[in-house]
Design a protein that fits this description.
Helix content is 24%, strand content 39%. Helix 2 runs antiparallel to helix 3. The radius of gyration is 40 Å and the shape is elongated. It has a 6-stranded antiparallel β-barrel. Strands 6-5-3-8 form a 4-stranded antiparallel beta sheet, with no helix packed on it. It starts with a helix and ends with a strand. By secondary structure, the chain is α+β, with helices and mostly antiparallel strands.
């Protein structure tokens, strides 16, 4: 009987211990990891006074880039310019061997002279009615064809010379003396870099925040992080099917020509129109099991954490923009949120 009573007492003690543990767990869930609540750090939400800033990586391009090619086939005879050389409008860049074209021109001139002589001799005969009209029409047609052939042959001789259509810099030279030249294949690329453009790929979820005229700051690592100021001048309307980005171009003044096509740079584009948009640290944004994004807001009076669902916008330099769910003045929990649930007791340490 005594043994049975001991077993009963032991069982009651175990039950009491389990119940005490359960009560303790309930208190910890509602009150945090101690009696004062879970320690958290907050940040007061304010609208971006200076607007929104977008950051990208871009590539510098010449403001003008013109491929120059010969209109006829031939063999390069003289190449008068080097890469990087400045040229003026009308300057002779290269020539082809023109011997065969000049011979063809002389033959065309001889045929033109024969056709003209035939016309001069037979035109009076036709006027007297001694030459059938169909024969005279044939002679006139032959003269016109000879004139056209001579003009075409003369043009081909002229096409053996390639001139600069405008002033600029030889960005690329593709031919050497003795090379065979194919019509339409670029022999040179003429560029202008007193102004340059930076091509930037902008994601489709950020393109709405970019507009022409926005100011941009460009930093070039190859120039010791030197900064240059520019403006957005072009916005593409067709996205890249692979990257889902739109091409945006920023124009910069480059009077010293230190910016070279092909240089990689960082680009920060500022949009002051979006100054009222709320921006929060991306690290504070969490996602639930349904894919919905949320953050925790601190209620200083009740010392409780409130779970708020949000709608995020574009990624920017200092975080992510918020379209819905938060207001200026809210206390965003930026540290310690990993331990929180809705209505958890908190201790604000900052």
């Amino acid at each position: 009987m005594i043994v049975k009573m001991k077993h009963v007492r032991l069982s009651l003690l175990l039950i009491a211990t389990v119940l005490a543990g359960c009560n303790s767990n309930v208190k910890n869930t509602s009150g945090g990891n101690n009696m004062d609540g879970i320690k958290i750090t907050t940040q007061k939400i304010v609208s971006g006074a200076d607007g929104i800033e977008y950051s990208y990586i871009g590539t510098i391009e010449a403001s003008v880039s013109i491929p120059l090619s010969f209109l006829i086939a031939g063999t390069a005879e003289q190449v008068n310019v080097e890469e990087g050389q400045s040229v003026k409008r009308g300057q002779l860049l290269a020539t082809l061997n023109e011997e065969s074209y000049r011979n063809a021109y002389h033959m065309a001139l001889a045929k033109e002279e024969q056709a003209q002589d035939a016309y001069n001799r037979l035109e009076p005969v036709y006027r007297k009615g001694s030459l059938p009209e169909v024969k005279f029409v044939e002679i006139k047609s032959g003269l016109a064809q000879a004139n056209a052939a001579a003009l075409l042959a003369k043009g081909k001789v002229a096409d053996c010379k390639l001139f600069a259509p405008t002033s600029g810099i030889i960005g690329r030279r593709e031919i050497e003396p003795g090379m065979s030249v194919i019509p339409g294949n670029p022999a040179f690329r003429l560029v202008k870099i007193s102004k340059v453009k930076v091509k930037v790929p902008v994601p489709e979820n950020e393109i709405a925040g970019i507009s022409k005229g926005l100011n941009a700051v460009v930093k070039v690592s190859a120039l010791g992080e030197q900064q240059f100021k520019g403006q957005v001048t072009e916005i593409g309307v067709i996205s890249n099917p692979l990257s889902h980005t739109y091409g945006v171009k920023v124009e910069l003044d480059n009077p010293d020509k230190v910016l070279k096509p092909g240089m990689i740079c960082s680009v920060n584009i500022s949009n002051p129109v979006l100054a009222s948009r709320i921006v929060i640290p991306l690290s504070a944004v969490q996602t639930d099991g349904n894919g919905k994004r949320f953050v925790f807001i601190a209620d200083a009076k009740s010392k409780k954490a409130k779970k708020k669902y949000i709608e995020t916008g574009a990624l920017v330099t200092n975080g992510v923009t918020i379209n819905k769910g938060l207001s200026s003045g809210d206390l965003l929990i930026t540290e310690g949120y990993q331990k929180l649930e809705d209505n958890s007791t908190i201790q604000i340490i900052k």
